[in-house]
Design brief:
Chain A is mainly alpha-helical and 275 residues long. Chain A has helices at 2-33, 54-62, 65-96, 102-114, 117-130, 137-141, 148-158, 163-171, 176-187, 189-205, 208-213, 222-231, 239-271. Chain A has 2 domains: 2-54, no CATH class; 63-271, MetI-like fold (Orthogonal Bundle). Chain A is globular. Chain B is an all-alpha fold. The chains are: A mainly alpha (275), B mainly alpha (285).
Amino acid sequence: MKKIINMKKFLHFSILVLGALSFIYPFIWMAFATIKPESEIMNLSIWPSKFTLDSYRAVFEKIPIGSAFFNSVLVSSAITASVLMFSSMVGYSLTFINFKGKSIIFNLILFTMMIPFQITLIPTYILIVKFGWTDSYMALIIPFMVSGFGIFMFRQYFRSIPRDLIDAARIDGSNDLTILFRVIWPNAVPAMVTVGIITFLSAWNEVLWPLIVIRDQTMMTMPQMVTLFALGGSAEMQQGVILASAMLLSLPVIVVYMFFQRYFIESMASSGVKG
Amino acid sequence: MLHQTRTGWFFASPYIIFFLLFSAYPIIFSLNLVFHRWNIISPMEFVGLENIRYLINDPLFWKSIKNTLWFLFIHIPLQVVVALVLANTLNEKIRGVMFFRASFFLPVVISGVVVTILWKNLYSTETGLLNNILTLAGLRKVPWLTDPTWAMPSIAIMATWKNVGLYTVLFLSGVQGIPRYLYEAAKLEGASKFQQFIHITIPMLNPVLIMVVILSTIGGFNLFIEPYMMTGGGPVNSTLSIVLYIYKQAFSFFKMGYAATIGFALALIIFSVTLIQRQLIEKNY
């Protein structure tokens, strides 16, 4: 009996190890490929004959990856801050304020969450053109400043906060904005973390929208620049250089993920959204 | 009450502005575009039902639908099976669960751009890691991305690899929610592990299963960056996805009216497919 249990344990363990290897190994391979000489990249052994930073040097010489990094950080942070602020405001009104039209607004939110972006993609692009926002931060930030998903998450979470807390604050004479930022926010940290992580990650990884509204190289975000670099001629098909640019795009996420993986996983599992 | 209404609308105003600008206006505009020919530069030209007629007779549109459905047909079962296996294995009290969970989840948080660049290398016919392993095992090389039959399945495998961690975690929390006594009762009745899995685990996971299938269907219909970067829709349009086709029509050929028409058709398809799936899954269990 004991033997059978051990066999089973071993089988389960092998499945998990095999799984873990197949998910992690490609990233390890990539990391080593970026510090190998170009000629050794396709070797089976991942260990290089000598370490070199040539690939990274080439990336920095060929494309303004520094400014793309700056743009990505700025755009993703602005979107995240704005989504946290506006979504919690709307979520607050839907939970704690009784007003005419409330249920209409809530149903509109559910409705817009179901509209595939393919319908709104082209008209939104045309709107951006009309406003003269192409090749600007406006184009990258404004269409993402409010999120139906964020509102929905906040509303769900706010419903678990006792109303007494708000009533007490109202009696003290606080207005609703003060209550939201001073009373509700400190009590809604898990919701803030969930919405924050998912919003930041999806903004950081967004690539279709920048490909459409940005042409000027100095305004490009990281994923867009890496995409065009990998596809276009300037990488001269040097795999090491392309992989190095991909490494620079994923490294910030990998580092943050290593420290906060629990929050990433729980956020996305609780909402079922990939970011 | 009046005060409440004023504050309520003030707090909801960010959404209302957003809704008018980025939902209501685009939907109406898009609907209008369906009946026009427009290249952005010259004025719009009313063409009636011309775009819809063209859509129905456009072999490339049907090809892109077929490709996307083919992608889903491989991707969803593969993803559900792998996620179920990993989740059930994780559920056996094994040391290092946190580590395994975190490693399965890693590709989920990484940009699709990086994953695509990485897999383009792994899939390389002459020098890629996968074919190297096959050669070592004495098997023949597979033309992963260069052969029209292999290209879409290859992309589906990659997409599964990228997303399966999320669904594993969803299934895992579902499995953990199943009451122990159900299994104990089944064991007393003499049910095998496999029977327990089919008759207890799967039906109890039904809500998660519906969610997983619907989420990955919607995700699959949005397939864009993978074929855009890996194959450009080729070889011979075998990986042309619907969103890639919309992108090409709108931003390579500047046929805004036609692109909007495809967008509406796609929305209609997503809507009906998820509705049908819901019905099927709910009925079968």
